[in-house]
């Protein structure tokens, strides 16, 4: 087997390395028109995706706030219903007492005649 000189091997490695970079798209040449358009579209798509994720996070936070507000309202409604029931019972009790007082007044009035 023939032995190659180190400069020749270095040149061969440099050429092969450049070829690999070209295949991987890692060259220093400016992108072609189509490639530039595709890169711009990719950047735009990433920007849209970032905004969509931010909007989704805001929507989730708002939904959590609305859920808390709903729970607070349900608690308030339950408290108001309980208070309404208590006031209704007090009202009925006062009506019974008023009727009883009316009967007592009527009885006293009849006795005084």
What does this structure look like?
With 113 residues, the chain is mainly alpha-helical. The protein has 2 helices and no strands.
Keywords:
single chain; about 110 residues; mainly alpha; 2 helices; about 90% helix; rod-shaped
Mass-distribution shape = rod-shaped
Per DSSP, the total helix count is: 2
End-to-end separation in angstroms reads 147 Å
Instruction: Give me the Rg, rounded.
Output: 44 Å
Helical content band: over 70%
| Beta-strand share of residues | under 5%
Structural class: mainly alpha
Give the integer mean of the pLDDT values.
84
Low-confidence stretches: none
- SSE topology string: HH
| Strand segment count | 0
Task: Please summarize the sheet with the most strands.
Answer: none
């Amino acid at each position: 087997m023939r032995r190659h000189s180190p400069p020749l091997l270095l040149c061969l490695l440099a050429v092969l390395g450049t070829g690999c970079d070209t295949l991987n798209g890692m060259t220093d040449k400016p992108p072609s028109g189509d490639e530039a358009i595709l890169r711009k579209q990719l950047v735009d798509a990433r920007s849209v995706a970032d905004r969509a994720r931010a909007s989704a996070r805001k929507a989730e936070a708002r939904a959590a706030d609305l859920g808390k507000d709903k729970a607070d309202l349900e608690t308030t409604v339950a408290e108001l219903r309980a208070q309404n029931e208590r006031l209704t019972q007090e009202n009925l009790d006062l009506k019974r007492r008023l009727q009883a007082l009316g009967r007592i007044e009527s009885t006293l009035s009849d006795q005084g005649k």
